[in-house]
Protein 1
Amino acid sequence: MRQYGLEPHHSVVDVGCVSGRLPAQLKDHLQSDYLGMDIVPDLLTYAEALCKRPDWQFRKVDGLTIPAADGSADFVVFFSVVTHLTQEHSYRYLAEARRVLKPHGRIIFSFLEFAVPAHWAVFDVTLNDPNPDKVLNEFIGRDAIAAWAEHLGLGVQAIHGGDEDFIALDQPMRMDDGSVLQGSASLGHSVCVQTKAQ
Ligand SMILES: C[S@@+](CC[C@H](N)C(=O)[O-])C[C@H]1O[C@@H](n2cnc3c(N)ncnc32)[C@H](O)[C@@H]1O
């Protein structure tokens, strides 16, 4: 988000904030508004306690509506969220994100795509899971992203494949398996950055 212009005075809407992974990283950087939303209330309580920012909002939502005014946010982000929604629901959520975005604001969402070979493993797990209530892992093609953006009046500023080392690291990062990343890293998921011209 910093690479795409996040400043301390910016306001952020984090759709699907779950237990607070992103706001925990933002809490000492962001001086302005943060709205974290999720459909699971217990996780929101945990995230709120983790961040200790009484000025921030953590809201339970139903459906695909963002409880924020038109043109009020600099960033609306969906990390690992549209991966679990149908394409129709993702499109509706992006339309809602566009509504709450300020002119020149940015939408960032992570996604799964067949263009990234490593994402096949996720497809394979879903393919072989017999559980009728299995987690939805929806793949999105870049052609769909281009069509959605055109219909929503959004610009696609960048798309980074999940295996692309595009994230500049300002310090070494230790992974759970003990390996250390330096210089730059990928996210794993692919990432799309969209802009609202006006
Ligand atoms: C895989 S988690 C990602 C969490 C977080 N963004 C992260 O990267 O750590 C997906 C989250 O999206 C939430 N979610 C699913 N549908 C949603 C919806 N319609 N609105 C808001 N959040 C939703 C889920 O409850 C879950 O907490």
Protein 2
Amino acid sequence: MSSASGYYVGIDIGGTNTEIGLIERDGSVKCLESIKTTGNGFETFFAETCEAITKITNGEKYLGIGIGAPSANPEKGCLDNPINLKWGTVEISKIFNQRFHVPVKLINDANAAALGELRFGRAKDWHSFIHVTLGTGLGSSIIYENKVINGKDGFAGELGHTKISDRHRLCTCGHYGCLETYVSANGIRRTVYELLAARQDESELRSVNYNDLNPKLIAEYAHDGDPIAIKAYNITGQILGDKLADVFALLNPQGVCLSGGMTGAGDVLINPVRDALFSSLLDIHKHDIDLRVSDPDSRIAVLGAASLVMDINQ
Ligand SMILES: [Zn+2]
């Protein structure tokens, strides 16, 4: 049987920062450290992570380590050449297990966030839902009957590289028309620039350098009534809502949970998502649209990673 109490270490490896938390079984964060992910290769990252684990645990016994990371293969316990980290293939579960001598479990970063919402966050009262993280790119996962759908290699449920019709932007993956090329921080920047080129509306955004454009700034302009900023969020929300309607038709989930920095835009993003989702859904699904937004302060990905080792036999 699993332990009824104790501590667990959760690690959320992001493209820029990595958070390492000492987590209690009820989801309380006892201690949290943050380090830079990129820089000097995996060896340096591992050394700094070990140091952080030693610091947050401070001699306290803990029962396992759960890791959420990009390009994670849960079956093999390895990172499969994550594009943004340039670490190559890393047998990360084995490396942490040999160093700390506790069970180590690995999961894709998007799935870690979804598990966190399921167990401790906005989706505590759901068993089946779609989770979408809107960051630099678009991460997503599907929880179905309380289980994350991993698929063969751990990449199931990734909507970011599914196609949208009538859209032809080139994606970082090399294909055209991927959802992520519109619905992400980079996507909305591209939308703003396209709108500025195509329309005559007066807009403060005309004087903003492309590299200074970000979803937060665009949202501020949208809230101030800037027509280009509002239109950019409308397009972004509509495309996401249409795509979510497809997933509703496929899986009949209880709802959608959105997370990530872009959700800070609030209604200028959420309303068009909800409107598009509603108008694209079959009538049989319309009564139960439930669209929720993650608590940005909840450290949900760290909690989800830690939850991986909460139910294994010790
Ligand atoms: Zn793509």
